[in-house]
Amino acid sequence: MDSREEEVDVDTLAITVDSPRRGSNLEKLHLQKIAQQQKKSPPSPAKEFLGKVVGVGLDDWLQQPMSIRLMCLFKSPIYFVLAITTPVVDVVKPKNNWCRPLNCFHCVTAPVFVCFAFGYGLEMIAGVVPIFAVLAAAGSIFGLVVFFTSKDEEPPKYHWAFAYVGFLIGVVWIYVISMEIVVLLQSVGIVFNISDAILGLTILAWGNGLLDFLANLNIARKGFPRMGIAACFGTPCLTLLLGVGIPTLIQLAGTGNVLVLKYSKIITVLFAALAVSLLSSTITNVALRFNTKRFYGAYLLALYFTFLVVAVLVESGFL
């Protein structure tokens, strides 16, 4: 396509306004733009790598308003750390989000990040070599294998394996961030003389449950109320089973001793409120043939606030 055809966009658009065949002219204009886009050469591997780790291309960034630019600058350090450690396979994006240099780099950064996340990064093997160096060397070998068995233009056949790696790294990131939040809340409790139980019942529980509430509400509004209600019970059940089961299993497997539980009054309040809530939900849903009414939602809210007040009073020593 020559330069005259490339410069015809504005004139062609003006002609089609008064043209009786505006549909065909607009279609031709659309086809011309598609042809121009197809003739553009794909970005170089270095430019593609930079766009993946920054989150936005330079050309797109310059076309955005100032507020969007500032937001991109603010989130770019966080995005960079996440992108450099977590592989993402997205079937919607071109090449399933495959980026050869970045995915090769993930073979090194992912195991090293996991090692430091669990506190073993500076541990020494035989008092000579740190663990992170061994993992980095092994990851470099895998990265070279990926580099020499893949192409920049298309993802390899084993690209699906990066999706599982990305899922595991995402779980580790959630673990790291949640641990930092818990430490921050404990610091707030120490400063204001608030017990860990009250912080867990209020701030931590609200922050943990708010996202689940919004997600379940959105699912129900999209026409899947049964899925939303099931998630309301399934999510805390899974959290309780994994949150108590896995640490207990690790503790017993590591020490071999009996795990002694410390009893307190707040445990009685917690289990009593949980039992009343689950029993009420079972009886009410069966009696109403699983057509839940508004009054039951109001009852659950009243039950929660009653439990919260009683729990805070018990933990504070007033009851």
From TrEMBL:
Domain spans labelled Sodium/calcium exchanger membrane region: 163-312
GO annotation, biological process: intracellular calcium ion homeostasis
Pfam families: Na_Ca_ex
Keyword match tRNA processing: no
UniProt xrefs under Gene3D superfamilies: NCX, central ion-binding region
Topology of the protein relative to the lipid bilayer: Multi-pass membrane protein
A GO molecular-function annotation: calcium:sodium antiporter activity
Domain of life of the native organism: Eukaryota
Subcellular location: Membrane
Transmembrane segments: 68-92, 104-122, 128-149, 161-185, 197-215, 227-246, 266-288, 295-314
Keyword Secreted attributed: no
Record's keyword terms, sorted: Antiport, Calcium, Calcium transport, Ion transport, Membrane, Transmembrane, Transmembrane helix, Transport
GO cellular component: membrane
Protein name as catalogued: Na+/Ca2+ K+ independent exchanger
Source organism: Ornithodoros erraticus (European soft tick)
